[in-house]
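Predict structure. Input: DUF2064 domain-containing protein, 255 residues.
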Amino acid sequence: MTVVAVVVDPPRDGLVLPALPDETPLSAGEATRLYEAMVSDALLAAAESGGDLLVNYRSDEQLPDEHVPEDADAEAEVRALVEDVLDDDQLGDVRIEVQVGSSRSARVGNTVAHLLETEDAGSVAVLEPDVPTLFRKDVDSAAMKLRRSETVLGPADDGDLYFAGFKAPVDFEGALETPALENVNARAVDAGHDVDFLATRRRVRSGGALRTLVSELRARRASGRLVPAYTTALVEDLGLRVDGDEDGEPTLVTE
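Output follows.
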């Protein structure tokens, strides 16, 4: 069985999705609500899949000082979000654990190595929480690919990754620096792994990515297709839609 580690930050204004208030009509508080919604959809996709869910969060000690208020409690904030989303049965199975390491590469590498080498997990997948159109069926499809390949990667925009699955460890030192996709792939090839890939998806961290997401969600909803429940509900609550400005360029507006 695959352990699906969803890597999250405590949902705090300015810490999560920091570019959106400058690039979209969203305030910092609304950007935080969007992050919470996307995390919620990622948690559901993982919890409802055939894998085991691990919520892997950054502690206050790992966060920039300006995002650690006096009463900060990263674990409590993350746990509250998880408990709001999952039902009692799912909560009985989920694990919530702090990340270990001084960089993204170190934290992800330590999680993967610990699960594979110490806990003898059959396979481990690391999932970023800002790809809300990744559904349960996609998580299960990725797990099936891991039965045939030692490494499975989900390419994101700008050479990044939204998903990285492994049946055996690779060298993660600096691997998630730009371009993470090429770096992790090279480490997997160096380790003798057969590498497979998922469909490319955009991580929603910029105004352009949010415009793409909003338009897709509205189209999918109008066609009666599957949508991520929490993210779609927030988009509708905020009245977000894509329109053309006076030059015909796409812009995100609120109704």
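The chain has one domain: 2-202.
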